Amino acid sequence: MDFSALAEAVHQPDLFADAEPRYNVPPGTLISVARRADDEAPVMIEQLWWGYRPAWADAKSPQPINAKAETVATSKYFAPAFKRHRCLIPADGWYEWLSVDGRKQPHYITRADEKTLYLAGIWTERGDDLAPGVAIITEPARGSAKEVHDRMPLALDNDSLEPWLDPHFTERDAIRGVTRHIDAGLIRHWPVSTAVNKPGDDRNAALINPL
Questions:
Q1: What is the rounded distance in angstroms from the CA atom of residue 106 to the CA atom of residue 192?
Q2: Which of the 8 DSSP states describes residue 68?
Q3: Rounded CA gap, 74 and 88, in Å?
């Protein structure tokens, strides 16, 4: 992944990540996340847990991996993080499954210009020994992504990266006023091997190859 757009947005030319490329990242694992640990901290790329459960929630509470854009700012579970703990998840693409003749065919969805996607997310301190937890914000699918699934991650354009991570924006209307998703015309997808159905093999670059 190319982090240059994010590095430029947050005015940190030396921002980088040491993570090895991963091609099949399952929920309930550590993922690369750009965030501020507090309002005064610089943006860092860290490994956080893909599974959101606030520290105040009990051990039986859900650990969602996604939060809907329509309700993330008003839900008791998500609203505090939307206000103060927004983050970005850099990715080259994601998988969705399309029903074809009674079976589910995985598709890889990415940017047509091959640039890094920056997925909007929220994070929270958890009440266990795991790293802080993350949920990716989703919105109704747009562009060609609608051919595969009715929802998609909220991928922000480059001008939105800095304000999304800016702790001075705390109100929903203000945040929405300074952030935009990428143009729907940038989204493309293709079918890939059903090998992605088996989590564990996340170093195989062939998983994203078109069939």
A1: 6
A2: E
A3: 20
Q: What does the DSSP assignment read for 3-14?
A: -HHHHHHTT-TT
pLDDT of 98 over the 70 cut: yes
Give SS3 for 164: helix
For 46, the domain range is 4-92+112-183
Give dist(CA 154, CA 142) in Å, integer: 10
In a domain, 83, yes or no: yes
Q: How many CA atoms lie within 13 A of 100 on its CB side?
A: 11
Q: What is the CATH number of the domain that holds 157?
A: 3.90.1680.10
Q: Report the alpha-carbon distance of residue 82 to residue 137 in Å, rounded.
A: 10
Mean pLDDT over 188-206 rounds to: 93
pLDDT tens digits, 9-58? 888 877 765 667 899 999 999 999 999 999 999 999 999 999 999 999 99
